[in-house]
Amino acid sequence: MKKNFIIATAGHIDHGKTSLIKTLTGKDCDTHPEEKKRGITIHLGFSHLKLNEDVNVGIIDVPGHKDFIHNMISGVCGIDLVLFVIAANEGMMPQSIEHLKILNLLNVSKGIIVLTKCDLVDNELIEIAEQEIKNEFSKTTLKDCPILKVSTKTGENINFIIPELIKILKSNDYDFNQEYFRLYPDRYFQVKGFGSVLTGSVLSGTTQKGNSIYSSFNRKLYKIKRLEQYSHETDLIYQGQRASINLNNFEQQDYEKGMMFSNIEYPKTALIDVELNLFQNVPNLKLWSTIEFYSNTIQTQAKIHLIDKDILKPDNLCLAQIHLNKAISICYNDKFIIRNSSNEITLGGGKVLDAFPLHHRRRTKHVIELLKQRLSNDYLDLLITEIEKTIKPISLEYISKKLFIKSEILKQNIDFSLLSEKYIKINNWFWTKKHYKLIKQKIVKYIQIGHKNNPLSNLGNTFEELLSVFIESIGNKKLLNYGDFSEDSQHIFLQAALDELQKEKILDKRESTYAISSHNITLSTKNHTQINWVDQFILNQRMKAPLWSELTERAHRREINEKYLKQILFYLVKKKRIIHNNGEFLHSLNVSPIRIEILKYLSKNPQGISVSEFRDLINANRKISLIMLNIFDDEEIIVRKDDKRFITDKGLLFLETNNDSA
Prior knowledge:
There is one protein chain. 35% of the residues lie in helices and 27% in strands. By secondary structure, it is an alpha+beta fold. It has five domains: 4-168, Rossmann fold, CATH 3.40.50.300; 176-262, Translation factors (Elongation Factor Tu (Ef-tu), domain 3), CATH 2.40.30; 269-370, Translation factors (Elongation Factor Tu (Ef-tu), domain 3), CATH 2.40.30.10; 398-522, Winged helix-like DNA-binding domain superfamily/Winged helix DNA-binding domain (Arc Repressor Mutant, subunit A, Orthogonal Bundle), CATH 1.10.10.10; 525-658, Orthogonal Bundle (Arc Repressor Mutant, subunit A). β7 (182-191) and β8 (195-204) form a beta hairpin. α11 (433-453) packs across α12 (463-473). Mean pLDDT is 90; it is low at 477-483.
């Protein structure tokens, strides 16, 4: 059950925001000496209010002065409700209007409009102020907010605020484990005996004491030593809470304003795609414009590149790509605000469509279509646009982390059967069929080249050889920021491609290799002559292994280069004309009688035979004797024990079967 909420104040300077919070909570949020001296709110102030036994709210008091609008934006990002404070004696003022525009863009829809200082004006002025408020709020997300007329000085109607908050902040069923944890710390300080403490609003998910959280600033993990919620120690914090986090080994240099903590390794980005909304009565934005960018606690300069318009006029929307001056941690669907480069005017804002886009050097129709597809907020559309961004296979887990949406949520909300024929899905990995087809073509071409280079082999390439081609074709084994394209996934994708090519009758499985279906060995008269010469040369060596230097030299005279010679030799091996063992080649006709001879000997001499005895038996040198014994060992017709060979059951069977023919 969601029982914790974050609310913030909003409104013009000196309209009574801080006084209202002090009246409700008993705490003065202006704690800085400069604030006391000047009598205005400069920094964000924080307080807490227990509405009833079930519902707690963290309160953020924001400054109303135009010079501190950046602090206001930081305070209202990710809130559940706003207390919009307007003084009855002044009505809507410049920062009232500016704050309202900002809240509207941030899609804050729950709130209470608190008309303060009602003790200073008569009923007629209160009615005028009410009508003005209704007119200004009528076309915003806060149009349905109730208006409470109060006075913090007399206490008038203050007692109606808490019941109204309870009414609006109804507790809803919510599984915090469905979202990744996220918090932007807005304060950092040292506490004696504890060390580094950071405070902030939990925007999503949950974490607990003893867990480690990831810092986007320096890409390090920090273990949580202690957690507090509203000055009380707790083991668990979750969305809707203001929290204090005490971290192990966290120092001053590890903190940066705008940094994000999460429970996954989430990268920073300097390029984002957005939907941009310009306020009324502000300057046009050109194709390229320099602005100040604000979101959560993030503040940086940036350049905006319009995508589907050449000029963005006031009160209009467009698609744009924002080039940030520094890399930030921001997520899909986050809201943001922009101000002009001199930071004097709030120009507008919008929402993030893609936190990790491609660089749109050209504003093509395809780019615009994909961005519009992301506007739908449909999970299937998001999946498709992520697949379209890469020429490589992409996993659901990787997509979920890029979107900062758990993969379980994507699985629950996507009907994968609706993926068009343009895409393939294998074990929660996705690919465009266009690029998958290109990979298949590269595999076929590789096998064809192999056939061309080795015309005497009817075989193709092994799975392992083709796997190397597959990996090289898609770029690199380490495809993704969040881990390797696993070996299992590589095998699954390649096997799927090979199965399809066999089904399409393009490839055949031949022994342990894949070959082009139409490939057959075709020999010319010249080929036959050359093969026969090699066969005869090996045969003529009889009881000695041919010297490679002699063989290559004589082959060269017959227009057989070394590469082709090896192909001929293995062709003859395949035809069982010659035997290959440890780099040596012997003719089968020379080996066959020796095979029978040793088996006959061993069948009559159970004590076995040594190398020297075998050498004498066949009247050969030691080298050829060892080669022959290795051949017979490999055939498993004899077995070596210590320094002797003995006949095996397989050898006895062979002898019985072949003795007559010998």
